[in-house]
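Example record used in the benchmark description.
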Amino acid sequence: MQKQTKAMADVFGMALEDYQNGRYTEDIKTFSSLDEEDVIPVPYLFRTFDEMPKIEQKALKLAKGKVLDIGAGAGSHSLYLQEKGMDVTALDNSEGAITVCKDRGIKSTVLNNVLDYSTEKYDTLLLLMNGIGLAGKLKDLSPFLQHLTSLLRPNGQILLDSSDIVYMFEQDDDGGYWIPDDGTYYGEVEFEMEYKKQKSKPFDWVYVDINTLQNACESNGFNCELIISGEHYDYLARLTLKEY
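Model output (structure tokens):
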């Protein structure tokens, strides 16, 4: 999500703060260029480890060393790692999200867009809940990966999940999919959020299928290992820098 102007509400952060402070009455509505209205259930953002999907559980078990949780949201992943005694920092560009992370007891937080952050280096970068989507568009995936490189310590790793959203397109009798040939990657989506009648600024998000991710990694000096596939076109991947 891009930085909000003062006139444009941090609707994601507002929803998190309301839930944290016992004011939960509704969920976040989402509107996208691909689908009709959907919702993000706010309680789900506060889930425990046992309530997380297997992909997220696996990623947290693979986390090592000093960890940066990028797009931390309510901080559920950071909180679990911190409780395990790990050195973890929760990063988000939502002021409300970072307030909630602090309220939940997360010791190290950063309020910033990851592309504007370069203060420290880490052994593990976490990009969960389709976190690679922060790249925005496919053409921006390479520069996004290059920036992540600058945040990695030697022998560091990036753990990310994403989805192949080809299933959202119409399928023909031969099993193929009818994808619009308009020159854009089918995983690019524009989103808008709404909470308590306040709307976010529209923002770009990209869902990256594993083959496209592997190609991007090859071009940017990364090994890309498919760790686990989920139940619905989703997957967890581990990226490590190639040794030359």
